[in-house]
Amino acid sequence: MQLFKSIYLLIVFSISGFLFFCCTDEASQNIDLGGVSNEGVSDTITNLTDDYFYNDISETGTADNETEADIYSVDSVSDSGYGIDDEILYPDVFIVDIDTDISDTSDLSDTGSISPNRGFPSGFPWVSFYGSAENIDLNRVAQYFRIINIDVDPDIGNFTDDQIKLLKNGGKNRVISYLNVGSCENWRSYYKNNPPGFKSCVSTGALTTVYSTEYPDEKWADLSNKDYQNLIINYVAKRLADRGVDGFFLDNMEVVEHGPDAKYGPCDSKCSQGGLDLVYKLREKFPDKLIVMQNATSDITLNGYTNGIWYPLLLDGISHEEVYSNGGDAEALSQMKKWRDKKIFVNGFPFWLGVEEYVGKCDSAHKSEALSLYNKATSDGFNAYVTDESSVQQSPCYWE
């Protein structure tokens, strides 16, 4: 009997070893990490067309080339060494290769589940512009781009409700609105005039220094200020949501990375944590809206927690400016790759990873440079949009 057991164990271990070495590499290679799929796309981009799309998702909710065994639902891995509570907030968010402990998680909503409206079904092409609808072919924008970031502040009148609906293209596109959380512009109606029931940016006492010499018309904010949080979440964001957009594009969150001694926008540890807490409250207020964070991709956010929740789980995507253009930003590229390598999925869709690059003008003279930037971003698994300048962005660029 002992001999039989020994032979049996030898066979089992031999088969296990064979399966491990022959199958592990195949199961883990060619995984799309939240960028565009390479399937059906040429290695070099020569023109941007509507056929150039984001990674397809299979019926099982996994990405192309990803096996179900590679993906862990965050509500089902509490016994696999990841330290995740069974009462996880987001049972429909998927994470692979977690190297951050997600623990002490508590519910954010009564359901303990995320909205089916979250996640980006298509991540490319995308566009970001802040001018008005005047003299822009909105039908072309709606047909060409899958993610559209605009400013729908009702006070500036860039778009009517019907125009926003047109851009959504019957649900084919996701239209999100610019939401400045880290600073406040002096031309916003709520900068120094108190909205009914709220304090203005100035009245909250949250504003610190001028943004920069380049942008003297806005000031950084202390994001731990409760009155400021209330203004942004329950007044500013609510007015945007009431316009019918699918979500928010958070700007100037990088204030949480500044530190207490920064010349512009000093932000101590309380202020920094306040920024994460603000986004938690935004998610709590708008559980069915998409949230994309621009810049601020350091370990402060990637490894941050708020109210017991791993901060990235509050988001549907991130974007970073000038990762490749104008000399590039090696630190930003490294940070974006760290987010990419988390392999987060939201409702079965890859966590959206965007980069926004600037070439000066959207014209034929800059087309070659623009397409080169698209290629660089795509090769690293990111969804690029190339436009003129950060301070301009008044209309969409097509690069056809």
Task: Describe this entry's structure for a reader.
Helices cover 27% and strands 16% of the residues. With 400 residues, it is an alpha/beta fold. An 8-stranded parallel β-sheet has the order 3-4-5-9-10-13-16-17. The radius of gyration is 23 Å and the shape is globular.
| CATH architectural label of the largest domain | Alpha-Beta Barrel
Span between termini: 74 Å
Instruction: Write down how many β-strands occur, each being a DSSP E stretch of 2 or more residues.
Output: 17
What is the string of helix and strand elements? Answer: HEEEHEHEEHEEHEHEHEEEHEEEHE
Strand order of the largest sheet: 3-4-5-9-10-13-16-17
Beta content: 15-25%
Mean pLDDT: 80
Considering the protein shown, what is the CATH homologous superfamily of the largest domain? Aldolase class I
What does the radius of gyration come to?
A: 23 Å
CATH-defined fold name of the largest domain: TIM Barrel
The proportion of residues forming helix, as a percent range, comes to 25-40%
Provide the low-confidence segments as ranges. 1-43, 49-112
Largest sheet, strands/sense/barrel:
8 strands, parallel
Class from helix and strand fractions: alpha/beta
> What is the molecular shape?
globular
Query: What number of domains?
Result: 2
Task: Please identify the top-level CATH class of the largest domain.
Answer: Alpha Beta
